[in-house]
Amino acid sequence: xxxxxxxxxxxxxxxxxxxxxxxxxxxxxxxxxxxxxxxxxxxxxxxxxxxxxxxxxxxxxxxxxxxxxxxxxxxxxxxxxxxxx
Length: 85
Hints:
Strand content: under 5%
Number of helices: 2
Structural class: mainly alpha
Number of strands: 0
Largest sheet: none
Distance between the termini: 82 Å
Shape: elongated
């Protein structure tokens, strides 16, 4: 294994260990203040729900074409017939 590969492997190991420590610390903080965790989870849920509702409304009202209108099929382009002078 080259030095570069060793450093990359060590970097992944360090990153994984750091992430594990951060998750453990976050879990301890959540257990210490459960009310805050509830507020955070509810805020995220409301945010996702509102975002979904707004996007659904925009898609239905703005992004969908009007019924009966066939995009591009209502008119055609024909080449001009040139008459010799």
